[in-house]
Amino acid sequence: MSNEQGATELRLEGVAEGELTLNGRISRVVHHNDDDGWTVARFKVAGYEDTVTIVGHLAEPQANQSLQVVGEWVRHPQYGDQFKFSRYQLERPTGPEGLVLYLSSGILKGVGPVIAKRMVEAFGEEVLRILDEEPERLTEVSGISPAKLEKIRQGWAEQKGVQHIMLFLQGHGISAAYSHRIYRHYGDSAMAVVEKNPYRLAAEVRGIGFRIADRIAQKLGFSPDSPFRLEAGLIYALEQSGVQQGHVFLPQRLLLSSARSALALHSDESEAVDPSASDAMLEEALSRLLEEGRLVGET
Asked: Domain for residue 159, yes or no?
């Protein structure tokens, strides 16, 4: 089945081939795991009467949330056809009904269907712009006191912050699953942390090791001989030695050699200008780790 305009492809007769895009809104959140964002939801696809099941990683899903999801149809042995999305984008709703549903979905504390309807009646399609640019005007709406306005203002700012961070992370090739973990760990600081030193993720976020952090850093344009990368590579090399060979101690020569291999500093793919220069930088990185107490040397 597909809609007449071809904007959204929907195939329920079987498992569809290839990647598809669905636009619509969440009608009900069936399950959401706060730890990793894994979500099962019923989804009302734009232009269709029936809802479908979508599964994937979502940050703070809400009923009536408008989304564009990208993924493929899969057939679950117990639950049947599901749309498994690998990435998504939050969309702002349009039309009076969509706006009322969105504003009363729980994203704004103290705003239920009655207040949401009054807001839309007062400002129409401009209501989201009012929230963005002139929130003080909301006190023109019956039932919104200065105290309630402050709650609405705070909730709207938080919602925009989450969307901005998730779009930034996914825009740099970070999967929805990892984006959710990063956001849950760092909150509003997530974007600043990733931009400054994505290698922190390897040490601080569950499930994100050096290799994943390294891919993220590459997408952000970090140099192969970035000090952050060299330090993380040394720690990774020591950890791998412990996992593979049971070592909790390595002679400096072996640690540097292992780190060199892990970082591919002397490979053809490396952008390091000079092997001897990269070796010197690696030794400097090791010295910093020892001075900071992040690695312990033999005394």
From this structure: yes
Assess contact for 208 and 201: CB atoms under 8 A: yes
Domain boundary among 90, 125, 151: 90
Q: For residue 51, count other CB atoms closer than 10 A to its CB.
A: 16
The type of residue at 15 is V
Global pTM reads 0.62
Phi, psi of 57 (to 5 degrees): -100, 120
Instruction: Provide the residue-wise pLDDT of the chain in tens; the chain has 299 residues.
Output: 444 333 345 554 444 456 899 999 999 999 998 777 899 999 999 888 889 999 998 877 888 888 899 999 999 999 999 999 988 888 888 889 889 988 988 888 889 999 999 999 999 999 999 999 999 999 999 999 999 999 999 889 887 877 777 778 877 777 777 887 888 889 889 889 999 999 999 999 988 889 989 988 988 899 988 999 999 999 999 888 765 555 567 788 888 888 888 888 544 444 444 555 578 899 999 999 999 888 887 75
User: Residue 146's domain is classified under what CATH number?
Assistant: 1.10.150
Distance between CA atoms of residues 263 and 231, nearest Å: 10
Domain count, the chain: 4
